[in-house]
Please model this.
Amino acid sequence: MTTANHAKLTGRGYWRSLEELAQSDEFQAQLAREFPGGIEPPASSVTRRRFLQIMAASAAMAGLTGCRWPEEKIVPFARRPEGFTPGVAQHFATALEQGGVGQALLATSYDGRPIKVDGNPDHPWSLGAASAQMQASVLDLWNVDRSRTVVRQGQNQSVTATWNDFAEFAGKQFEGLAGRRGRGLAVLAGASGSPSRARLRADLQRRFPELSWYEHEAVSDHERLRGAERAFGRPLRDVPHLEQARIIADFDCDLLHRHPAAMRNARMFARGRRPVRGEMSRIYAFEPTLSHTGVVADHRVPVARTQVPVHLGALAAELVAAHGVSLPAGCGITAGDLAAYRGQAPRMAELEALAADLAANRGRGLIAVGDRQPAGAHHLAHVLNTALGNVGQTVSFEPATAPGNGLAELVDALGRDRVDTLVILGVNPVATAPADLDVTAALGRARTTIHLGEHRDGTGKLCTWHLPRTHYLEAWGDTTAADGSVLAIQPLIEPLYDGRSDLELMAMMLGAAALRGHDIVRTTFHQRGGGAGEAPANDLRFEERWRKFLHDGFLPGTPAAAPVLQAARLDLPRVAAPTAGNLELLIAADSRLHDGRYADNAWLQEMTDFATKVAWDNVASLSPGTAEALGVKHGDLVDVQWQGRTRRLPAYVLPGQASHTVVVTLGYGRQDCGRVGQGVGVDVYGLRTTAAPHGGPGATVARSGGTYKLACSQDHHAIDPTGYQERERRVGSLVREGDLEHYLANPEFVDHLGIHHPPLLSLWTEKEYTGHKWGMSIDLSLCTGCNACQIACQSENNIPVVGKDEVGRSREMHWLRVDRYFQGDPEDPQVAAQPVACAHCEMAPCEGVCPVAATVHTEEGLNAMVYNRCVGTRYCANNCPYKVRRFNFFNNLDDLTETDKMRLNPEVTVRSRGVMEKCTYCVQRIQNAKIGAKNERRPLRDGEITPACAQTCPTEAIIFGDLNDPESRVSRARADKRSYDLLAYLNIKPRTSYQARIRNPHPSLATHDHEHGAHAAPTDHPTGDHGHDDAHGHGGH
Amino acid sequence: MADDHVKGSGRGTPPQEQQDRHARRFLFPRWTNLLGPISAVLAIGGLAYLTVLITLGFHPRNSAIGYAPEQPVPYSHALHVGELGMDCRYCHTTVETAAHAAIPPAEVCMNCHKTIHTESPKLLPVREAYAGGARLEWVKIHDRADYAYFDHSAHVNAGVGCVSCHGRVDRMEVVSQQEKLTMSWCLDCHRNPEPNLRPVDQVTNMEWVPDEDPAVLGARLRKERNINPSTDCTTCHR
Model:
């Protein structure tokens, strides 16, 4: 692709990938084919798909006991637990820890089997939302490759042992260590906000005064904590209150996704983004690569990671010099310090607008800085927020623990032979250590190493003892949420594989091997309430509080007092901006696998990254201009070299990434996990160093020769493959956008963005829907593209995973996909996200072409799929204009192991090979809610039925309800002027409609190439003869 | 094409022989005379085969009706319900609130059998289960396909009596299946529920007979309670 091409195409409307923008041969070829991946499965495709089937041989032998179907047994409880009804799902509040911060969850248990995880709707910092990772964590519980037994390293080989063997060993070992005051004892753990762990750690320090404690998180928030420490004298976590913020400045923070309080942030952000009242918040994002906050930002500026502090400095200078913001007295930063940064950012227009906005909205603005930014940037943000009066309004603070010793210190101590016994609690330093730390060698220097882990991973194999660890859904525990509330972690099932929790191992170290997690957490709770000693066994008042804690899942925290700024000088690192000859490497946490902890999670592996739309791989992403300068094309293998270390990855040309940067993500290329993640992608931990965990300038990228096939879904399911030119002009009508000002002046503009068509007449007498009339509305202003809905759907509806090869053939099974569209300049595009699932068209085109009536309409207007009738012609998928139907080319779920079957949702039929499937609007939930209401002899309430996608959506962008109820939320959403139907001119009457995306640009910056919203797309095309004027005359659009 | 043919035939084949060959090409070979009788035999045989297949295939003996597997405990509904007059809901507690009517836990049996027939060898498995031993494994009798979702509570609360689907359980020493439980059987009632409706308080009454014309009562109950069973696929298949 040439620059000339870019220039020519710039501002042409929407595009989904650079191939599409450039009209490459491959894209043309793909459009021409009915099945883009070809229909014959090559021999190699079976390997990954088989991973679950291999284990199923035993299961397949069951049955065949006669002509009647197999005899089924009913095994009732001997004593049924109180309040338990067989076959009715129960919900338990629990929590998941990520990077030391707890996320409040609600786990669904079906007959004792945890099958789904959602956000805890009662917790103010979850509000029922859960990210894709949180929801997918339930799959890890059922992972058949989890560690099952204690393993002891013998002389030459490892031997299977039991917990009793270990207890015997541990009793003696720790007794001996206690006698030596714990000299030589070290613990390596992950970050945690668990009060129980803190209590046991204190107990350990008492028993072993010389115990050394190390914490390792590959993706840490240490700079955030250090920044707060610098500003306020103590480590604090900033807690945003976006509902108060009118101006949000996101400096590489990703408030709506990566931030520890992202779930609440997203919900509160959504409150300020409904343009009905004519008021909207405004978001500015400065970020090195496309984040979910960047997707919804009104102004997004691609900035290399190292240049973000300079931008923040330039903003501060602008605020002080141009808007007279006075820095707090005694904060240690003077206007003179900042003067040097004035005008230093390459794109000052956005910063000037932001400064003006922040100055005009004192107390209603927020400056947020991300974890991978240096402490000095956090410090300056705190100073600015204080100066603008935002502290206490849009941001508050919660106490945190200061980062202590980490992996580097441990390796050093091991190297000096200061560690004799090392206990590793659930972390995997061998796989996640930076390149300059030789953990493998260091571990060999300790006499005894004890590893507690869910997998016998690289670390587990090196340790003298490996102990199976419980999944969080099997163990008792507690943690602290972003707002300081204490969360309960309660088990939903007995440990599947004889595991123990971190807390229970710590109790063993304390010589209390019999102590179970439940008692530990209970005692902590008791002591937190002011009690002393053990939790009482039969104190009713205590019992009441404890039960309430478990029921609600949390104990509200007490708001911390507003911190006071202390003097600290400005410390904004100034790094030379990357250039073509000096690329900057960014090593980022992966949007799916995080630091690699989810590498063995098939749902997350198959979920595409929102920016790249790549599944089952990590890539080295480059901006289009950078790639062109390097002569690198999409899919080329490139050698990324940094500080003398090289990794070979497939290149991905990502519009909107900062120029002259290369971004690689962690967590892939694991060689030590289960069958799902083994060897998927490329391990880039080897590029990291302790000093520079996020990479930095001085990287080189060179083509290594050869290309790599990526399973990239971005051109899958292109709508209207037969008429691509037509589609090109229609796409502006698929994702409709406009500016707030334009919308307020002319709310009807959304209609005009569609294809103008004569009044639509039907050939048939259309059906009247008199009962319920289910419908959905999706607000594109709120969709961040976070994929939470996709995983919610997968979890709820037993959607199979098909593996990389099948995804590469467009055979992914997700009922709900999240499309992303770029618009404008490839170096600095605007981005829009659009979830698309079956729209349950009233005049469904799929139904007419089915020769066996396998897809039919119900009285309530659902487009039902009758699996038993389906003979697999796939005509329906061919005739579906939205391309939302999915075909089972294989028996994806039939051959699961008995363990794997337990995770399936019994409310949803498991589909077999040769059957078409698609979104059902979660018909099982509709039916159960209807039955519940009928049994109580009352009408259904609005909001009673929530499909899985809508339930989890962090921004509540998806609304479902009855269109025949004029007061329902979905009816009101569809009555909104922003509401439009996708491909309405086909007269198929979809039940899912969209609300146009409204951007709120700063007036001084609103002169983007789509001045009148995306109006340009349908009207400016060269062959605009499609009855435009006529249609206006009829007014039939 | 024609030119080629002429050219080819002109290469030394005598015209007479050529004509014979042309004529022979359009004659059926002799063996085809057998096709007539063969098709007749096949048609008659096939018809007979189909008749037998359909008759036997749909014979009640080959449906699930009458399926009465041996259970781990020889529990008699005839004794407990018929003679002693226990209500269905004493054991099947969740029938009004949940999809499953739920087989009772051993605890429920022991409510009485702690004091009655405490030594009965027939009850040994129940006592063992209650004491924490091997659990009772009842054999499922009314076993729908897994893709059909039936909800007891929806039917019981609409006034469909237990007896409509389960038959006179109060007379069964060994429980057996009484109805076909096929989709067409379900649809018969979903299309015309009136004959199977009764006052909700009589749902578990095995001996209930309407005081009035059943058709009138059914129509009235249907109207009163707004019972409009759906015949959409998604009602039972999810």
